[in-house]
Write a structure and sequence with these properties.
mainly beta; about 130 residues; three-stranded antiparallel sheet
Length: about 130
């Protein structure tokens, strides 16, 4: 299936359905092929029913601000662009933008074909 985006926007907005321990939650994620792992803000994880003090484990992440330990949480599933990943580990990181609640990283696209057409403003994921 082909999805549309505005190539003039600051980021590629992707609607995603996150499924956590308590409920499902629709969010906007920024498509980020430079991020090795997908990220969800702690506030969105809290809405899903996660106890932020109890991550599955922690991992060291290198950011623009240096190295930081972050919690890793396991979603029951993450669905976006017509594809569902079940289960899906995500990093809990606060992001500087209020325009999206996470990053859809390379881990979601691994073993799939991602076509981004900036000229026509379309995304296709197989």
């Amino acid at each position: 299936m082909v999805y549309r985006f505005n190539p003039g926007d600051d980021f590629i907005a992707v609607e995603a359905l996150l499924v956590g321990p308590a409920l499902s939650y629709r969010v906007i994620l920024a498509l980020d092929t430079g991020a090795s792992q997908s990220v969800v803000t702690p506030s969105a994880l809290a809405v899903l029913g996660f106890d932020l003090s109890q991550p599955n484990h922690e991992t060291l992440v290198i950011t623009a601000n240096g190295q930081v330990d972050v919690g890793v949480f396991r979603l029951a599933s993450l669905g976006a662009l017509g594809v569902q990943a079940s289960p899906m580990d995500v990093l809990a990181i606060d992001l500087p933008s209020a325009d999206y609640e996470g990053l859809l990283g390379k881990d979601f696209f691994r073993d799939r074909v991602l076509k981004i057409d900036f000229h026509n403003g379309t995304i296709e994921l197989q």
